[in-house]
Each structure stands twice: as structure tokens, then as C-alpha cells.
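ingest -> validate -> predict -> emit
validate: passed (alphabet ok, no gaps, 428 aa)
predict: started
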Amino acid sequence: MSEFKTVRGMRDLLPEEARIMKYIEAKARRTAELYGFKEIITPIVESYELLSAKAGEEVRSRMFVFKDLGDRMVALRPEFTASVARLVATALRTEPRPFRLFSVGSIYRYDEPQKGRYREFWQSNFELMGSNRPEADAEIILLTDSLMKSVGLKYAMKIGHVGVLRGIFNQEKLDDKTQNAVMQLMDKQLYDDALRMLKDAGISKEGLEALRRLVELKGNNVFDVVAKMKETVAGHEKAAEATENLNEILKLISQSGSSIDIMVNAGFARGLEYYTGVIFEVHVPDLNIALGGGGRYDRLIELFGGDPTPAVGVAHGLDRIMLAMQEQKALRGIGQEKTVAVIPVQEELRAEALKIAQQLRSQGIRVEMEVMGRKMGKALEDADRRKIDWAVIVGERELKERAVVLKKLQKREQATVKIEGLAEAIEA
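emit:
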């Protein structure tokens, strides 16, 4: 029989990786709790029409699309936001605002597999819906900072504002198709191609010059960059308003007391078409992929038949965060509970050993029972090889005294301990 392999772009997470992933997921859940976000669980399979509505050409072309047995076009979700927007437009329509909604799970995109890029990956997703105010944008950015710091990462954040670029495009009366194509090129940092497309589309000399200057404007001295952006877009009313909005968000972040390494990039664009305001991405030095990103999208819920609902959100790549933690050596000692092996000295003591194992588990201690029928020496050797911390040896002589032998494997120390005091002895 031929050897089965994973489907290209998919992978298995072995116990150690799964443990790290669950640790990061737990940090994301804790962040959600601290910021008052409620968890929702949405389907992995949604209608193609819903997922493609405003995803952007780049994402649309990389969706896993198929017909179900009822001849309906469906797709695996390439992101969470469309599903959350559907819920807000329907089941949550009459709930009080704002909505703070959290999701976590797997996402699917038909990308070319490479380091940190797979066709199945995991995200934690946060959406704050119902507020158009800059403090809502600041909250999503601060929440992202909280998560990155909680897993011990050193990172930098890139921030831009789609409204600045769209403001100029709209004043120049560029159609949506051209705008979206230009934004896709800018997302890939193909700025010369983007400017050439704008010129071919008949943009004015002033408009082209403003955009040429914007794509070169970036830096860590954020308020200097914003001041230069204001000069550049003077005469473009909507772009000037958007620049002022970016300024307000950055002011709120700097006044919050959080120290975030921020670079403002005026020509920054992201691949999803639904963004309308501030956008941002998280990067670490050693990886050329974003660990997370998001922004403001004020018209998506209307598109799905809901009431006009301004919104801002972010998605964090859990497996990319894991990769960054490995690169930055930020994994030491995470989620490592002590483990105990319970070993009966002879067959007749199996039931007693099981009883002791259950007692320890009920007291919150992680236990692996010896189930291979190994002799004592082999069982201890195996427990040691798998880096188990303690062995509880259940022997006939000790049981008569309601006791067991507790052996600390790494230090080769052992003592006879009463069963009722066993959990305390292990935890001490």
C-alpha cells in the first residue's frame, strides 16, 4: 500500500506544537475576556456568495470553492469577518451595541506553501462593531499589543489609513474596479505599477503627485509623518479628514500609557476590499510575513442586509505567532504542568493504582497510568525517557500502611508517602 501523506499545504501538529498552539489560543481567549469580547462559533463552510462579496480579488482567487450535494456553491472560510458580519446582520440585529465578538479556529486559503504560510492556518479574530469613534480603533490596536506582549514577543506595528488613499481616488472619480486593482498592487508594494495604472486611468497631475509623495512617506516618528501627510493631501477634503482621524487614533494610543513600536506608512494597503479607515499589521524582525492585521470597515454589514454598522477588527495568526516565538526563543516553560506516572508493582494492584490515579486527577494533577504491563525497571525507564516528573509506585507492602513510594525521577530521590497526603507532597 502506498504511504499516505498530508494534502499539500496542510500539516499535522504533533503534541509539542499542539501544546504551544493551545497555549497561544488560551492567551487570545484571556485577552478577549480582559477586553470584554464574547466568543461566537461560526461554520467553516459558508456560501461562496457571502465569502466573496467583499473579500478582494486576491482572496477570492485563493478560496477553496466547491459545489455541495445540493448543487450550491460553497467555500471554506478564508477569514472570519464575513461570517461575523452575517451574524450581526441577522441573528444579532436587535442586540444592544457595540458588539465585541471573538472567534478562534482554522482558516483556508490556496496559497503557495512556504515558511509560515500554509493552506490551513489558525486565527484569533476580534470584531468591535457599532462604533465609528477613534477610541474603538485604538482599543483593537491596544488589544493586539496586549496579546503580543502576553506571549512574550518583541514586535513592531505598521499603521496606515485606507481613507487617505480612497479620499484621493474618489475625488479623482476613479471607478471601484480601478481603485481595487490599484490597492491590490499597493498591498504587494508594487508602487510603480500602481502609479502607472493611475496615470493610465486619467488621474490628474496633482492627484498623481500627491499619491507619489504618500507612498514614500513613512517613519517611526509618527506625528511628524502625519504632519507631512496633512501637507501632502491639502486640497483633497476626504483624504485630509482621514489623516486627521489617523492622528486622533495615534494620539489616543500614545496617551494610553502603552509603549508600542509603531511605524506610520502612508502608502500601506491591505488585500481585503472592505477596509474603509485605519489599517495595521504586526511584524517581527526575523519573518517577512505579518503575524496579524486588521482595520476599520464601515460598510460590510449593510452589504449583507444589516443596518448601517461601523466596525473595526483584527485577526492574529496563531501558528505564525508560534513560529515567531520559536525564532525569538520565547517558549521556555510555557504551559508545562508537572506529570505523574502511576506504576503498580504487580498485576493484582492495577485496580488500586487506577484508584490512586483517579484521586490525583480529581485534585488537578496530570497522571499517566502504566498500561503496558511493563516490569518496574522498564516502566521507570520509560517515564524518565518521556520527561515525566514523578513516579508513584504502588506496592503491596506500602499499601498495607495506606502509603505509596513517591520517586522524583530527575533527581533520583524517593520517599514513602501516605496516600491522603500524596497530592500535597507532589505539589510541594
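Residues 24 and 134 are 28 Å apart (CA to CA).
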